[in-house]
Specification:
By secondary structure, the chain is mainly α. The protein is built from 10 helices and 2 strands. Pfam families: Neugrin.
């Protein structure tokens, strides 16, 4: 005959052993689940901590900088763009002055060829380079060049030069400079609205206008430098600038 007390005690022992087993297994599973769920939060917390440390280091570095550095940074932001570009060009040139290559006009290059052809012993390459303020290599290239403009190119060049000269002398007239006869005949410096031009007033010729090529700097007179070729005989004749006008016209 079975005893109910014994069977009840056996069942209680059996269920207690099962519950103890689950209690031993469940905590490890829950801890792993909690660790997996808390991993992203811990990573984000670490990122926030590192970002805060970076900001603190940045503040410390900024406070340790000298006032000159702060002032230069603020001035760099406030300066206009053209000043920034000017400083960049100055740094690129290593402090040297801006010295662009000089460009000679086609008429000047033709004059260089003519001078060297007529008097090669006098107008040598170093002399021409010194007078026209270019390098000797540039003079050599000009003398070696065989290119000549066509008639259409020559007409276009003259038209451009006339337009450029008209613009230049129009600006000089506003400063009180009397234009040459050629430009006066073209209408430069003409009176407008019945007002007298400035170059006809008492403040005329207040601006000094010089040629880009100065023979006086090298001790050369204009008549000695630029020869005039007589069309009839083909010989060279010099300008008689010192002869009075009455003697030249035979009075």
């Amino acid at each position: 005959m079975k005893c109910p007390a014994c069977s009840r005690a056996t069942l209680s022992l059996f269920f207690r052993s099962i519950f103890d087993l689950e209690s031993n297994i469940l905590p490890s599973t829950n801890s792993a689940r909690n660790a997996a769920s808390s991993r992203p939060f811990s990573t984000a917390r670490r990122r926030l901590q590192s970002y805060g440390a970076f900001n603190d280091n940045t503040r410390v570095w900024a406070t340790n900088q000298s006032p000159e550095v702060h002032g230069a940074a603020e001035t760099e932001k406030e300066r206009p763009a053209w000043q920034v570009e000017k400083e960049a060009v100055k740094r690129k040139l290593n402090g040297e002055a801006w010295n662009p290559r000089k460009k000679l006009s086609p008429d000047t290059m033709e004059g260089i060829r003519h001078l060297h052809k007529t008097q090669p012993t006098k107008f040598t390459t170093p002399v021409l380079a010194q007078y026209f303020q270019v390098s000797p290599e540039a003079i050599k290239r000009i003398l070696r060049s065989k290119w000549r403009p066509s008639d259409q190119e020559q007409e276009d060049k003259l038209r451009r030069w006339d337009k450029r000269g008209e613009q230049i002398w129009t600006n000089l007239v506003e400063l009180g400079v009397k234009p040459p006869k050629k430009w006066r005949e073209m209408g430069v410096g003409r009176s407008r609205n019945g007002e007298k031009p400035r170059w006809k007033s008492g403040s005329r010729n207040q601006v000094v206008v010089k040629d880009s090529f100065g023979g006086d700097d090298f001790g050369w007179a204009e008549e000695d430098l630029i020869p005039i070729v007589d069309g009839k005989s083909g010989t060279q004749s010099s300008r008689k600038a010192n002869v009075p006008f009455s003697d030249r016209i035979g009075i």
